[in-house]
Amino acid sequence: KPLSEAADIHLDTTDLNPHELKKLIRRRFGGTDKDGRMVLSFVSFGYKLGLPREADLVFDVRFLPNPFFVEDLRDRDGRDPEVRRFLEMSAGTEEFLQKLENFLTDLIPKYAGEARGYLTVAIGCTGGRHRSVAVVERVAGKFSNDKLVNVQVRHRDLREG
Question: Which helix (H) or strand (E) holds 50?
Fold first, then answer.
């Protein structure tokens, strides 16, 4: 019995290029969230454990001052207001964050326009506890109300407790 006879759905792909095929499949079968928005995932990580395999874009924030070397901040993580304040006091932090947010603001509609169902942005520092976590929290917050995307956050190397 031919495979085509067993199929529930038939798609004529004869005249489609790969991009058109991708759009057709996304229209027919989804690939975005339930509201049709692209899933925008932000992942913080530590370079000492390697890059996240799922990353589409990777940004290195090891140039920011490291709260690990401040005794009062060492045991906290990038979600803590004191850690964020420490980073914000550093010259260049706000400029970097603005440039990253502007870059992503420009890029996201382009990815969504290509019928991408997802985009994973990975942000790394040495251990994945302070700088990368704070940057992910800040940047994800910027896009949390964007109607084009469904924002998800994961702190890969952040261990509770």
Answer: none
